[in-house]
Amino acid sequence: MSRSPWMPFVALCLLLPACQTPRDTSPGKSAAFQAKYEIEKSLPLDFQVDDELEMDTATGALRVFPMDDKGPRIETRVSAYAKSETEAQAVAESVHISIIKHGQTHRPTIDEHSKPAWNPRHVLVVSYTAYVPAGTSIRMRNVEGIHEVRGRFRGIYLDSRHGDIFLQDAEGPMRLTTREGKITMRNLVGEEIEADTWSGKVDLTQIRARHLTVRTRDGDIRMEGIQAQKILTRSSYGSMELSGLRGDLVAQNKNGQVDIIGLTAGRHEISTTNGDIHIQGATGELAARTTTAAIRIDDFRGEAELESRSGDIQARGRFGQLRCNTKSGKIRARTEPGSTASRAWRFTSQFGEISLGVQQQFP
Predict the structure, then answer these.
(1) Which residue stretches of the chain have pLDDT < 50?
(2) pTM of the model
């Protein structure tokens, strides 16, 4: 039976460890919110094999960790902000939270009758820390606040409009989305892994996947130690720093620079509009194209086709095939022993100089 993965928003908020710097979702110390009152509780979970955890948030954050010796549970913290402590205490004590289970899905929910009416003089934040068994499927969504998930879970789907996302030591399919926030991923294994942010940096380390997709509009992309059959990275205004990649790579950048160190196995397509392309220590079949910027490849092994409308092209390596084309830029190519020069090689520049250093004769 199909069901919607999201239920009405619940206000959630969590604290990250020192290694993270989350967006501050507290109301601050304005005149209207000088007092704060907190209530903490622990709610047990009756978890069975293949059960799921699902949490929605309005403002705040979510944390999920593997279950410890205390068993599956959700620890809650209700924080109320108001002009006086008495007022804040009254708001906090009016909130009652329970765990609702639909089929195999567990969901923390503020009881409908205890939801305070909206009042500009009050701010209510509910923090959740969940401890669930390994292999649990997790779905979380919020408007503002961070997400943090650590553990060998079998499927993770995180969605935040304004908040950072931190994910570590997870397995299975993963989809991470935030409009304004940083995405950090560490030591992940999965068939399909996807990270998408409109404005924020994406930082990935030690990822193994069949398909890996990373997209950002205004943020940088950093990858290290990635192994996947297909890797797609896309940015409009951020730079890309990619190192230690294995697999077919498609890197598309509009106005940012692309730097790649260590790219092995497969067919690679690198393209920019106004950003330089620098590739070092790559193997395979490479197509690199830019409109106004420069292309430089060093220590390359394989076949390369390089094209820039108005930028310079530099190429050094052992080439099975090499083609360079620019309209107004310079071309400088140096081949190393083992290159197989042929009549299929092409070097074209309408208005720029061409310099070749070839250690064998063309047939």
Answers:
(1) 1-24
(2) 0.85
